[in-house]
Amino acid sequence: MIELKFCISNIAWEAKDDESVYRLMRSNGYEGLEIAPTRVWDNPYGQGHSDYAHFKQQLNRYGIELTAMQSLLYREESLQLFHDESSRREMLAALEKRAVLAEMLGIRSMVFGLPKNRSYSGIDNREAFEIAADFFRQAGEMAEAYHTAFCIEAVPESYGTNFINSTAEALELVKHVGCEGFRLHLDTGTIIGNKENLSVIAAAAGYISHVHISEPFLDIPVSQGVHAAVGRELRETGYTGFISIEMKRRHDSEPLTYLESVLGHVREWYA
């Protein structure tokens, strides 16, 4: 039976707690770290090579590898997928900077969620799909050149987007684009929020590059039954990538206590 590899996103705690969380990760068998680049650096795409190397060395001391990036266009809502060709060119140029960073850090998966950057109006669903497919084919080919991949995340309508709201829709887009640099990101928060049938995981076998263990609106993972079932499906499909806890930061007097609890519960559910 395939053993899943565990990871957590650094949006779940403050920078001052990094070292303490890394120790918790190591003691709980978490080998991967997902990052929001702006959580690590104020200007993540303009650092010197030594800054990136120092960050990797810090993680290496704890036996942690960088596995994924998220929040790719944080606070860059002017970059819109469906506005016009000019906006798409600007978005593609911005995403190339992310791909450059991913290559330098050894990151293989970049999660494309970004609900505020991907809503459309004035065109029908099919036209939106073809515009996006053309864009992501270009983005995927570019990502391949940097030895990484953009991973489309299905985002429910409740997050404020009308494009790719279900895992099945995301899978359809990935298959249509047909590029190794454009893969599927599986999100349990979407599965739970949409009440999706878990058969979608088997249907997506071979296309999934990254997985988020999450709840709707990034609450603490609590849906034990669903998570355990997702874990079984992933193992049965032969998934060998990382599964990453994605949860929002809690303003708690003892943040490390609840983080340690979450790390333990998730590992138990997905064992």
UniProtKB/TrEMBL annotation:
<feature type="domain" description="Xylose isomerase-like TIM barrel">
    <location>
        <begin position="24"/>
        <end position="258"/>
    </location>
</feature>
<keyword id="KW-0413">Isomerase</keyword>
<protein>
    <submittedName>
        <fullName>Sugar phosphate isomerase/epimerase</fullName>
    </submittedName>
</protein>
<dbReference type="InterPro" id="IPR050312">
    <property type="entry name" value="IolE/XylAMocC-like"/>
</dbReference>
<dbReference type="InterPro" id="IPR013022">
    <property type="entry name" value="Xyl_isomerase-like_TIM-brl"/>
</dbReference>
<dbReference type="InterPro" id="IPR036237">
    <property type="entry name" value="Xyl_isomerase-like_sf"/>
</dbReference>
<dbReference type="GO" id="GO:0016853">
    <property type="term" value="F:isomerase activity"/>
</dbReference>
<dbReference type="Pfam" id="PF01261">
    <property type="entry name" value="AP_endonuc_2"/>
</dbReference>
